[in-house]
Amino acid sequence: MKFATLKNGHRDGSLVLVSRDLNSAVSLIDHVPTMQCLMETWAQWEAPLEALYQDLNDGNCQQAFAFDSSLVMAPLPRSYQWCDASAFLNHGELLQKAFNLPPQAEMETIPLMYQGAADDFLGARDDIRLPTEDHNIDFEGEFAVMVDDVPMGCSSTDAAQHIKLILLLNDVSLRGFIQREIQAGFGFLQAKPSTSFAPVAVTPDELVDGWRNERVCLPLNIEWNAEWFGSANGEEMNFSFSDLIAHAALTRKLGAGTIVGSGTVSNRDTRKGSSCIAERRALDMIQEGKPKTPFMSFGDRIRMEACLPDGGSVFGAIDQYIVQENVNV
Amino acid sequence: MKFATLKNGHRDGSLVLVSRDLNSAVSLIDHVPTMQCLMETWAQWEAPLEALYQDLNDGNCQQAFAFDSSLVMAPLPRSYQWCDASAFLNHGELLQKAFNLPPQAEMETIPLMYQGAADDFLGARDDIRLPTEDHNIDFEGEFAVMVDDVPMGCSSTDAAQHIKLILLLNDVSLRGFIQREIQAGFGFLQAKPSTSFAPVAVTPDELVDGWRNERVCLPLNIEWNAEWFGSANGEEMNFSFSDLIAHAALTRKLGAGTIVGSGTVSNRDTRKGSSCIAERRALDMIQEGKPKTPFMSFGDRIRMEACLPDGGSVFGAIDQYIVQENVNV
User: Fold this and answer.
1) CA distance B300 to B7
2) N or C: which end of chain A has fewer CB within 10 A?
3) Which of B190, B193, B248 is closest, CB to CB, to A189?
4) What is the torsional sign of CA B189, A200, B259, B102?
């Protein structure tokens, strides 16, 4: 199944079920009005929604309407929890090598993960509004999962059953703050403005063979200003999404609707490109002695999409612009 | 005004207005059913609720019932954002001195702040359920504010008007994870299980002269197993709550219901005691060469309260026990 949230003037939007080909949708307002509601009542709605989804895909749903991905909010427009990992070790290793950073202790056994701001997620076509280019604007292409209620101490094995939906996101980052915030040890705050999500969140079966070992084994295609930037595959993730959920739940339960992210998708084969500018700059440094690739400018366009081998778009595309917000800074 | 959220079997509970003396309450279910709803519609409800509050305090509210603080959830049982600072520099300085930690760069000009988990706040009388004592269980007494919508780039001067409610909280911490998580730079995740809040959230005028310069200028009285542990005053906060809001909003807007915390309340006068065990252990180290005070055990009781000079309890008391959660760890 595929789900989207349409703008309706309210903070939580209106949940719709979207056809596999992303061409049509049906409102769920009379059943499960919002994505948060769906995550809290998943067991109750899974079977009837599967039947409705079948009808929608077969063209037998009378209430169906054309799905317009320019009208979406994030699938979950605001969440009570957003935990983002850095589960592709290749990414961190490249940055360490390029900039002579100290190695992370236990990085191969304990995932790096931070709490992210979850009160203001952006839709796939929303502008990314930021105060200044001087903060070194970057994108980060990631996959993520959304869970139902996870009990404290949930094992990695048990965590798999709590993965209900998979998402594609742009973890917008301001690199100018990263070094200070990492050194302070308190994690990212000013470095991580609002995060953007692809139009639809999908059940794991929508990935067909692309969902293996609780990893999204598909290339994440990124175009920056209409030029290819990367198509790194999620299969190289060093920790599975189940591992990440178990890490987050070690000392506390996780509320339904918690989103757990992979961190920047990164592959060892440099021909796959990168999923963020910071990594490309690390490769510049390693290959040419200095970081050549600039950060983003106002007016820049960023596009992210993941497709099945047959070309079908799994999540729809993130396709958005960087725009200056008028603030007194 | 004072507000509490009563348990009603739903995740967001039921909002009530509580009398100044904490003896009676009136349901707001027909107007603003939840605290999140109140924070999103504050401007609309402030005046009529002030009138109702007057009647409640005067004993002229026919729908009033006895307020039982054993039935509360956190005032906001789950939030879309919880940003916690470390705004009492004395606390960090003591830990640095005791354990030879490297000094934080710019600590006097840029507040330390982390994103906290906000999906599962505990009520004032809820048990604190944790998997093992081996994680070094600690409490942290803090004050916090709750805001309405804050625009990106909000100045410290403008931030004051967004402070709608003030809270008292126990930022439960697992010290066994702190060092690794700070060194990793990604902030606190396993080190910060669910946070507890005092029964009522109050408007700043309820503090009378105790609200000055956007600081809670009242002692935070802490008893651990019925013995005095500290009564540090919030007036020594090095950054005001307005400063903290402006820090959090530099690169993004903050959604209504965002909670911003002070960090452990800490005073330079050691006769005021401490608001967490970690600081007491730092003082042990400085004064006696080794940390003597143990961390918490299952069955321990922690009580926190802040009172006006006339003895009136501002927020009601946090009064809870540490209990073992049965998990497979």
Assistant:
1) 24
2) C
3) B248
4) positive
pLDDT digits (tens, 9 = 90+) for A191-203: 999 999 999 999 9
Residue carrying structure tokens 């002229």: B60
Among residues A18, A50, A14, the alpha carbon closest in space to that of A33 is found at A14
Of A40, A18, A15, A39, residue with least CA distance to A28: A15
Nearest CA in chain B to A76: B80
CA separation for the pair A316, B125 (Å, rounded): 46
B182 vs A contacts (CB less than 8 Å): 185-186
Give the pLDDT band of residue A328 (cuts 50, 70, 90).
low
Mean pLDDT score, A254-269: 98
* Position B314, amino acid: V
Bridge partners (DSSP) listed for residue A141: A170
Q: Which of A79, A115, A135 to mutate to test the interface with B (most CBs of B within 10 A)?
A: A115
Dihedral of CA B55/B56/B58/B61: which sign?
A: positive
Distance of CA B4 to the CA centre of its chain: 14
Pick among A189, A243, A296 to test the B interface (most B CBs inside 10 A):
A189
Block mean pLDDT (10 aa), chain B, length 329: 98 98 97 97 97 98 97 98 97 91 86 97 98 98 98 97 98 96 95 98 98 98 98 98 98 98 98 98 96 98 98 98 86
pTM: 0.98
pLDDT digits (tens, 9 = 90+) for B62-86: 999 999 999 999 999 999 999 999 9
pLDDT at A329 over 70: no
At residue A2, the 3 state secondary structure works out as strand
State in words which class domain A82-324 has: alpha beta
Task: Determine whether the interchain pair A187/B114 forms a contact, defined as Cβ–Cβ distance below 8 Å.
Answer: yes
ipTM: 0.97
Q: Do B81 and A185 touch (CB under 8 A)?
A: no
Chain A residues in contact with B171 by the CB 8 A cut-off are none
Helices (H), chain A: 35-40, 42-58, 89-99, 156-159, 175-184, 241-248, 277-288
Q: A20: Cβ–Cβ under 8 A, 6 or more apart, which residues?
A: A2, A57, A206, A312
Strand (E) or helix (H) holding B86? none
> Which tens digit of pLDDT belongs to each residue from B16-66?
999 999 999 999 999 999 999 999 999 999 999 999 999 999 999 999 999
Q: Which one of A112, A153, A189 has the shortest CB-CB distance to B329? A: A153
Long-range contacts of residues B103-112, Cβ cutoff 8 Å, at least 24 apart: B104/A184, B105/A180, B105/A183, B105/A184, B106/A180, B108/B238, B110/A180, B110/B247, B111/B85, B111/B86, B111/B87, B111/B239, B111/B243, B111/B244, B111/B247, B112/A184, B112/A186, B112/B85, B112/B86, B112/B87, B112/B263
